[in-house]
User: Fold these one by one.
Assistant:
Number 1:
Amino acid sequence: MAKRITKIRFYLDYEKEERWINEMCKQGWHLVKFGVGYFKFEQGKPSEYIYRNEMLTDLGKKANSKEYIQFLKETGVELVAKFATWAYFRKKIEDGPFELYSDTSSKIQYLNRIFYLFIFIALINFYIGFINTLGVINDYSTLTLIIGIANLVVACLMTIPSVIVYKRRRALKSKLDIYHD
Amino acid sequence: MTQNPPLTEGVYYILISLYEPRHGYGIIQLTEQITNGRVKLGAGTIYGAIKSLLDKGWIKPVDDDGRKKEYIITSLGKEILENEILRLKELYENGIRITGGDYNG
């Protein structure tokens, strides 16, 4: 059986994470599984695949990720692993360049999806966090304070990727002033 | 005739590809082939575009008998595409007329 390793990493920027996964692949470590803060790799041929991550959720719309994954499969894209709302896909490098989104408009739509989910999670956590820490509810206790602080930490952590995605989206939008893409 | 905004290259090539029934991968392949590799449609991009085009009624699924879903352009889709080709023709002809067109692409 192929050798396996687990790496502990935590990325707030999913694009940086994807770059690191591809860097690992160059060194012969193929991603096989991931979760919060950990990634499992299997040893294989260096530079065999191009990896792409994607957030599958679409807020407010009925998620149909099964159908989407099947569609990708028919175009030769392999699902590596799924965790919560995130998935990693890969394609052999020899099959040529591999991008899930090929034009500016669809990239912006995708960034919108991510941005709204991130900002939603951040706001919900700020809200619950303030209620718990400020003792709005009568039965104020150490426990609600701890939970409240945890909510605020999550809220702050979610604000960072929200800002990253917002800036990325703004940069792409300015391209549409000149190009129709 | 309603004036539609310009189509994206992706949507334009999806509509052209669907003059014959094709599935997603067929659209990607044909587009790459007829643009000599210039336009490589991402699977996420055409998945989203196909959904929107189905909603608008510009394309429709072909009766599902196989494993892979195939689509074909509707008469509304053809009308939109023909208008777009006329718009592109106008752009092209104005460009050639004013610049003289004595250059090689």
Note: Chain B is about 55% helix and 5% strand.
Number 2:
Amino acid sequence: MTDSRRIMVKVNGVDYERLVEPRQLRVDFLRDDLELIGTHFGCEHGICGSCTVLFNGRAVRSCLMFAVQADGADILTVEGLADGKQLHPLQVAFREKHGLQCGFCTPGMLMTAYEFLNENSNPSEEEVRKNMSGVLCRCTGYKQVVDSVMEAAQQMRNK
Amino acid sequence: MKPCAFEYFNPQSVQEAIALLDRYGDEAKIIAGGQSLVPMMNFRLARPEILIDITGIKKLEYIKTEGDELVIGALARERDIEQSPLVVEKWPILSKAISFIGHSAIRNRGTIGGSLVHADPSAEIPTSLCALNGNVKVVGPSGEKILQPEEFFMTYLTTSLEPSDLLVEVRIPALPEKTGWSFGELSRRSGDFAIVAVGILLFTETTGVCREARISMGGVAPTPVRAEEAEALLAGQKITEKLIAEAAQQAAEETDTEPDYHASAEYRMEMARVFVKRGLQEACNMLNGGQ
């Protein structure tokens, strides 16, 4: 056991101050310490993408960072996407276009698509496919995931 | 699994980081983007007792030119280099090579210095550094040194860095105006490690005649390698389909492959031939006004 360190971190607009052990992974900090269990923990080595969150505005694997490295950071998780009871257009599109079945990969899909659409509001289907290939889904075969992201992009452009 | 316990330091300067390395030596490991190290720690293949997080050294994040050289700080993120207008315009092969690394979320964290010191022989940044004749600046307790790729990459996952050395900068010379290039790789799935990666640069002065050729291959030897004899076949010659086929065959013979879980030695060698051939055709088409 090594000395814990105090970190200050903003998650979904809320400030937290916590003591963390250096070896604690970011994803475990979010799930166990902050009880934000929307971020899912899959492969534990950066391949599956389920644990993707936004870290200072950029999509990152939260299993490949330590909580202690989040000191001073601004994090957005899937819990922060909706505006109160109003779902984010991505969430609406995933529901309408059946972009999920079991839902395990969905937080990673949503956060990956969120960053992608922020950078590219009018993507081609091929660009969506390439970008979403970084998150593994073993249910949908990706057709509905791609449809959902395309639909969300259109809804967000129409706003 | 979860990583073993370690003590964490986050130095704010290069001097502070080197002092920590000097104090802890082999017990310490540097973490930058962590995209190779943390998976190894999660599997407990790496068990550093001391972790020195250098991401606080913000002044190592630059991407700029000095004279006509491209100069990149060790902590520049792969995604920032890939999208840098400067790199896209003047060193497009580097941007293209980086686009093959993992996925965007990995490139958002991974750094140029981290990829180089990890020294995976199939990795894109080491392979393109060899094609670009780039070098790395290393700082240690006794001062600075500049290392060429062949002095830096020793074997699988091994560089010539001493335990107290820190890679701080990457320098890449300017490319001539008339440059044709390509970067391609074979992987099982999008974002996987390359089975074979090939970077090509062709320089010309007279249309259709190659002044100099560079062929860098990743994944086919313990380090990224240049196919020097194949390059010599092309230098000063008019490039024809026949010559491209001969050079590709020669490049394949310059590989030093071993079979592993992903591919047999013969398959890697054959894919090196295929990717060198395609890469030369692509670079040649670019020079001939195809792009």
Note: Chain B touches chain A through 28 residues (CB under 8 Å).
